[in-house]
């Protein structure tokens, strides 16, 4: 079924542009001009994804995000003029799946929406993922390794977390570098070889926690998560 995107944005011009670009890419759309209407439409329509502005009338984006997360697992892309890392971290810690800063390119926003839907398709994004000794908690953005003395959390960057979460949802599948860029670094101007740098650091941290050779390189293709 054609995915439904709910656009919660009080600036009509921005909402119109996003609507037009999403429809062009095959989405159905609905719009809300304030936070309360966004929650009402979310409950009524059960959209596949929510594009959520932070500075909304009546209820702001943080309040809407909190209620949406209490209700379930609808993917959320936050949209805001705020450009501070702490704002981005707040959104991610509260359960947002991605974050774009205004002014933005609508093509980039659509690409991020598509990437989020690929990551979460058919999966519950708030469920702890367990693969062998590896545990990934998408809500707290925490990756841990289970040992004889309990869980040992890893100190990962956001990109490293996105990579291991994405791969943990599809164990033993081989991903090309391009697929990992699209899914885990959406909208960023990076070379595919940048993935190798992130993978090297991620493998080092996993090995230090007792998981060696969990992320394996596949010559001429990309990478695979090989857990036992």
Kindly report the spatial arrangement of strands forming the biggest sheet. 2-1-3-4-5
In the CATH classification, which architecture of the largest domain applies? 3-Layer(aba) Sandwich
**CATH class membership of the largest domain:** Alpha Beta
CATH topology of the largest domain: Rossmann fold
Notable characteristics:
228 residues, four-stranded antiparallel β-sheet, Rossmann fold, alpha/beta, single chain, five-stranded parallel β-sheet, Arc Repressor Mutant, subunit A
Task: Note down, in words, how this protein is organized.
There is one protein chain. Strands 2-1-3-4-5 form a five-stranded parallel β-sheet, sandwiched between helices. The two termini are 36 Å apart. The model has no long low-confidence stretch (mean pLDDT 84). Helices cover 41% and strands 23% of the residues. α1 (12-24) packs across α5 (106-120) and α6 crosses α8 (194-208). It has helices spanning 12-24, 35-45, 61-71, 85-93, 106-120, 158-168, 177-184, 194-208, and strands spanning 4-8, 28-32, 49-53, 76-80, 98-101, 129-131, 134-137, 142-147, 150-153, 174-176, 215-218, 222-225. It is an alpha/beta fold and 228 residues long. β11 (215-218) and β12 form a beta hairpin. The chain has eight helices and twelve strands. It folds into two domains: 4-120, Rossmann fold (3-Layer(aba) Sandwich), CATH 3.40.50; 129-225, Orthogonal Bundle (Arc Repressor Mutant, subunit A).
